[in-house]
Amino acid sequence: MRDLTDSVIVFYSGGKDSAVLLDLAVRHFKIVHPVFMYHVNGLSFQDTILKWAEKKYGVEIYRVPHFELSTMYRSGAFSKADRSVRQIKINDIYAHARDAFGCEWIAAGERCADSTIRNAMIRKTGPIDAGRHRFYPLAYWLKSHVVSYITQRKLMVSPESKTLGHSFAGIVPKDLAKIKVEYPEDYQRILSAFPLAEAAAIRHERTHEQPGHQAPTGAG
């Protein structure tokens, strides 16, 4: 295993916190291993930010299926249920990344200000969780600090953030409805993986359609 001061694993989503986290890691560690977890592989807006980060930092981003997919496939969320799929947890992904890179330490983007749960978690161990080999460089940052850093360092965040208000993080009906309009080809790619997701997107559209509003035709 490499020393903590030598190399580190960073889980990168393309969102604001992970953009800052990756930039800090590259500035302070000799070797950085970025890992990206996908729900649907090959979405154009995600490929855009991943290619940008790889070019900017001279790294190869390791792509792995998101651990949530196992639960989705087993339960039949947006697709036919398959109980033969092995249940995967986030710790399984951590273990896989550590084994793949021979690197023990993970830099995480959680902040105390995110939620009461994350605040309690970080307060319990401090910004360095020696027992779990995880540390939190942004532990005491506020959202304003993150935004300021991104502006000063001229960092790019995932393009779908402008539409969704955050990076794509799963099959969420309200997000699908927006992707259907802004990224129709990616929407079809999502439906190829999760055929029943379209019903959820349509239901959201109809539920939130304003009285007297004419839904656009031909979108997606």
Task: Tell me briefly what this model is.
The chain has ten helices and six strands; from the N terminus they run E-H-E-H-E-H-H-E-H-E-E-H-H-H-H-H.
Number of domains: 1
Secondary structure tally: strands: 6
Mean pLDDT: 91
If you consult CATH, what is the topology? Rossmann fold
Which architecture would the CATH scheme give at its second level?
3-Layer(aba) Sandwich
* Helix/strand order: EHEHEHHEHEEHHHHH
Spatial strand arrangement across the major sheet: 3-2-1-4-6-5
Per CATH, the superfamily is: HUPs
Unreliable residue stretches: 210-220
Approximately what portion of the residues adopt beta-strand conformation?
5-15%
What does this structure look like?
The chain is an alpha/beta fold. The protein has a single domain (7-169), classed as HUPs (Rossmann fold). It has 10 helices and 6 strands; from the N terminus they run βαβαβααβαββααααα. Strands 3-2-1-4-6-5 form a 6-stranded mixed β-sheet, with helices on both faces. Strand 5 and strand 6 (134-135) form a beta hairpin. 30% of the residues are buried. Residues 210-220 have low confidence and may be disordered.
Q: Mind sketching the topology for me?
A:
Blueprint: E1 7-11, H1 16-28, E2 31-38, H2 44-57, E3 62-65, H3 68-75, H4 90-101, E4 106-107, H5 116-125, E5 128-129, E6 134-135, H6 143-153, H7 161-164, H8 173-182, H9 184-193, H10 197-208
Parallel strand pairs: 1-2, 1-4, 2-3, 4-6
Antiparallel strand pairs: 5-6
Helix pairs in contact: 1-6, 8-9, 8-10
